[in-house]
Specification:
It is built from 13 helices and 18 strands. With 430 residues, it is α/β, with parallel strands linked by helices. The model has no long low-confidence stretch (mean pLDDT 96).
Length: 430
């Protein structure tokens, strides 16, 4: 199919390109940007006037709930939510039912997602069998099946020796390990330690749970030369440690969730279970440090941390409710809101959703590595067309995801996706 995207403001964050022009697409690739060949005759023309044309967004923290919830059609609904939010590539965690620790399960997930012709799915393989933290998985076989890196999801790896061996093994083959830095015993609470948690009688998770885990990870990285991506940094002290580790030359990258970027523990209000999240919402100074870290490049990527949660699970008391919130469709809007609130330019807001995630994934993207997260002639045609001036209100009816719970319910947010193109095909259009 030949597409012509006409008259949009084309922004390519990785090169600084920012021009109002046309884009021609054919056979899943971008044929030309700005200088359209005279003999290019499109099957369809998309009017992008007053809109921004950006690379397709890449979300590095998504739970699709498959395998495990096939009967509920979760994959279909969450992929539809992805493209409705302008997200063309998702990285999904291995904590499914069953856990993604077998090549067959990974291949099935890839097959089912490709059949939908929506966003691209890049699975994380389990680091240990059944995420129990005892026996390493067959990383080579899982990589051949389609895994781009290895993770314990939300399950802390208690045995430091196993973690060390995992890093040694991964380093030998050039694989990356994705870890959420949280010490097992200190991380058992449900809210961030502080005056609010104490007043509400909620068990706390101190900042030390994150910093102790970070110190351990960094020391092991020094001895193994492993490449590590840190998932969902949540504290000012954590940001400072990452900044120091990068200055020392460690091969470390990290991300922050939209929830931690915008909210604080005060938003928990009167035991609002929509705010029951992992990592827990921390104090304002932590949020300010996260915003500054994302702006200056200490934090590489912004993620949705999309976790659709059943309504019954959120109806329980705060401490008993399931942590998580939907976020795929909010990712772009909340990045734009952060850019507006903080005075950070639009280019940086788009970079943390496109070129930076692509850089984190690197060679694991295979043939897509050269052009993912970018708009370049000859590159893959994954694009997002959105209207930055259009505001919308977050409410259950506006979300395609089966998870209707989000801490941002009732918020009016900027930016509405008009069209999402994946591999040269229109996956979503208003």
């Amino acid at each position: 199919m030949k597409l012509l995207i006409k008259g949009g403001r084309v922004i390519n964050p990785s090169s600084g390109f920012d021009v109002v022009c046309d884009i021609a697409i054919a056979a899943g690739r971008i044929v030309a940007i700005q200088n359209i060949p005279a003999d290019f005759f499109p099957n369809k023309t998309i009017d992008a006037s007053d809109c921004i044309v950006a690379p397709g967004l890449m979300d590095l923290a998504v739970r699709l709930r498959e395998p495990g919830h096939e009967h509920e059609g979760m994959l279909e609904s969450e992929m539809a939510a992805a493209v409705a939010g302008g997200v063309t590539s998702v990285v999904c965690a291995p904590d499914t039912e069953p856990v993604l620790d077998e090549p067959g399960l990974v291949e099935m997930l890839k097959f089912r997602s490709e059949r939908l012709h929506q966003a691209r799915v890049f699975p994380l393989g389990a680091l240990t069998r059944d995420l129990k933290g005892e026996v390493l998985t067959e990383m080579v076989e899982l990589t051949e099946a389609g895994c781009i890196a290895f993770s314990q999801a939300e399950v802390p790896l208690v045995n430091t020796q196993v973690l060390q061996r995992a890093m040694q093994y991964a380093s030998t083959f050039g694989y990356a390990i994705w870890l959420r830095p949280q010490e097992h015993f200190l991380g058992k609470g449900v809210a961030a330690s502080g005056a609010l948690a104490t007043r509400m009688g909620l068990s706390g998770v101190p900042v030390a749970a994150e910093t102790i885990a970070l110190h351990t990870i960094f020391e092991l990285m020094k001895s193994t030369d492993a490449r590590v991506h840190l998932c969902r940094i949540s504290s000012a002290a954590g940001v400072a440690l990452v900044r120091q580790a990068k200055a020392e030359g460690l091969k470390v990258t990290c991300d922050v969730s939209i929830n931690s970027l915008h909210l604080t523990d005060v938003d928990v209000g009167y035991f609002d279970s929509r705010m029951r999240l992992n990592p827990p919402l921390r104090q304002q100074r932590d949020r300010d440090a996260l915003r500054a870290g994302l702006a200056d490049g200490t934090i590489d990527v912004l993620v949705s941390d999309h976790t659709p949660v059943d309504e019954d699970e959120k109806a329980l008391p705060f401490a008993d409710s399931e942590p998580g919130a939907t976020g795929l469709e909010l990712l772009l809007s909340l990045a734009l809101k952060w850019s507006k609130d903080s005075g950070t330019g639009l280019a940086r807001a788009l970079a943390v959703l496109t070129s930076s995630p692509a850089s984190v994934l690197g060679d694991s993207l295979g043939t897509l590595a050269a052009s993912a997260g970018q708009l370049v002639a000859g590159g893959v045609a994954d694009l997002c067309v959105f209207d930055p001036a259009a505001n919308w209100t977050v409410e259950p009816a506006a979300l395609r995801s089966q998870g209707k719970h989000t801490p941002f319910s009732g918020y009016e947010l900027p930016g509405r996706v008009r069209c999402t193109v994946v591999g040269g095909h229109i996956a979503f259009e208003v």
